[in-house]
Amino acid sequence: MTVHFYLVRHGQTQLNRWHRLQGITDSPLTNKGQKSARKLGQQLQHVRFAAAYTSDLDRTLKTAKLILQENIQPQIPIFQEPRLRELSFGEYEEGKNRQVLPHFLQQLGPLNIWKAMYHHHHAMELTNLFHTIDQTSQIEDAQQLSQRINYFMEDLGERYASRPTESNVLIVAHALILSVFIESLNGKVPRLLIKNAHVYRVDYDNSQFKLLAIPTSKLKEGKKD
After folding, report:
1. What is the strand order of the sheet 3-9 is part of?
2. Parallel, antiparallel, or unpaired: how do β-strands 208-212 and 167-173 relate?
């Protein structure tokens, strides 16, 4: 049976608001982040989720709970999964964007950064740039990050595809790892990656993923099975 995955980036956090890099470092949701999660929950309220999966970082768990509070069946199981954790930014964790960028320019040169940002798979290229300048051996490259999320999603897809009816599954994770997954399906993501509390739908059928657009006007209708 087809599995319908709803992929969501967590709501805005304090570190997001302060324009700092946030990978494996956790940070609480802002009021804006909580409000946008509830709003998305209202838009998805008629989708009957079989389960929700988040990373093992609290900002994703909190976002999932706020989304599900608005659902017609809020009491569904939520599972925390380390394989959904964001890329570690190593020594750059919590670094201010305006301080990290000059370092990138110095280490890599403006041409390499420009090529990465305007590449068709710019999330993957950005991941590789971080991996290139990493001195801590903590930062995965794009292939490693892509394999991590793809293997998890395939495992999950097979698990729910074996059920007798179609399933809707909520996934709440992070900007870079979700962007890399979407790019692996030849989908496009914004230049600055997936926005907070933004949703993508990916269907899993016959062991294949298919990325679907969800027009905002259609979100409220949801899928009711």
Report:
1. 78-80, 49-54, 167-173, 3-9, 199-205, 208-212
2. unpaired
Q: How far is CA 137 from CA 48, 91, 147, in A?
A: 41, 10, 18
Whole-prediction pTM: 0.92
Pick from 12, 50, 69: which is nearest to 156 by CA?
A: 50
Summarised one tens digit per residue, pLDDT across range 188-211 is 999 989 999 999 999 999 999 999
Task: Specify the amino acid at residue 101.
Answer: L
* Tally of CB atoms within 10 A around 189: 21
3-state secondary structure of 149: helix
DSSP letters of 43-87?
Answer: HTTT--EEEEEE-SSHHHHHHHHHHHHTSSS----EEE-GGGPPP
CA atoms in the 13 A half-sphere facing the CB of 105: 7
